[in-house]
Amino acid sequence: MTEQRTTPAQDGSAPDSPGASERPVRVNAWNGWDPLRHVIVGRAEGTVVQAPEHAVRRDYPDDGFPLGTYGPMPADMVAEADQQLDDFADMLRRRGIRVDRPTPVDFTKEVSTPEWTHESMFGCMPPRDLLLTVGNEVLEATMSYRSRWFEYLCYRPVLQDLFDADPRMRWEAAPKPRLTDASYKAGFWDTYNELPTDVQLARVRDYDLVLTEAEPLFDAADVARFGKDLFVQLSFVTNRSGYDWLRRHFPDHRVHAVTSTNTHPLHIDATWVPLRPGLVLHCGERLADAELMEFFKLNDWEIVEAVQPASWDHPPKLSFCSPWLAGNMLNLDANTLCVEENEVRLAEQLSSYGFEIVPVPFRAVGPFGGGLHCATVDIERDGGLEDYFPRRYGRF
């Protein structure tokens, strides 16, 4: 019912396994490691290099898209990425996991509200950016790019099906932002990338970045779920007002604002990665602040520093992702991790902690918005709400 493709012949994919299709649809996910039963996997189809805007600029002079230009991603890149996404979805189905897919729209269209017009949209590969599942609720994030304001439309068919099938599902949407010029710091990108690293890091610590506090703004991918505790990273796409909105929206959770030692913070899911209760992976170049590290250690969590990613043989064209996308993994359960197939050293490191590693060809997907975690949204995982942090420390 929730699978948007009714027959395998429509896109050459395998149907859901009998076990998945026979289970009733249920929205339930409190963390990222309980056994996965139902997931959304994105699509590369239709993705564009978005037109420049206050929030973001793309500059690929060697690949046909110098600053100020925009348009559809090359057809060969789209085909390769969609093949890897389809193969990944089929692998999940073979493991008994129900898979939904978004419905692309024409992302080349100009879009507008009464207060602004923008020349393009973006795509629907990274559903993790837009959707956050907490318990039986699926929440649509605000999105701080004008090019992504209408991206929610791609997921409305899936969400409507979930709502129709599960009478317990809560379908929520954060206030759609106005995204007027008042939401952005004028001229931010004209100077920020030229600043010394220490100055950039100081601005990250002080949350002096591209967004103002004119309205709540956040991407769902800046939220890490640990049962009772939600960690919200302040970044280029998530402001303090967005964090405060999330804190009020989830009054039964402890919602924490965190910062990174990354000069270009954008989404927490390749920086601070929960693996299972008591074990979290962090990116060696994006250390969490000392107070957060102590909070986890006080609650008997082991913090593992990820090994350096594999040599970056990602297709160099049109990618805005860093090598640390290696840490952008998907748990199938507390003992099984999907890892990009080239990240052999990371797989070996995680295997030493007892994980079964499922290598997944996924390098071609990066330029479309991220890795295995970015490309998915949990809809159902077994398990319930747990408190993994009984001891308080500092501001946490």
From TrEMBL:
Active-site positions on this chain: D219, H267, C374 (amidino-cysteine intermediate)
InterPro entries linked to this entry: AmidinoTrfase (IPR033195)
Family: Belongs to the amidinotransferase family.
Organism for this UniProt entry: Streptomyces nymphaeiformis
Residues annotated as transmembrane: none
One record GO biological process: creatine biosynthetic process
A Gene Ontology molecular function term of the record: glycine amidinotransferase activity
Biased composition (Polar residues): 1-10
Protein name per UniProt: Glycine amidinotransferase
Record keywords, A-Z: Transferase
UniProt-annotated stretches for the region Disordered: 1-25
EC supergroup of this enzyme: transferase
EC number: 2.1.4.1
The keyword Transferase is assigned to this record: yes
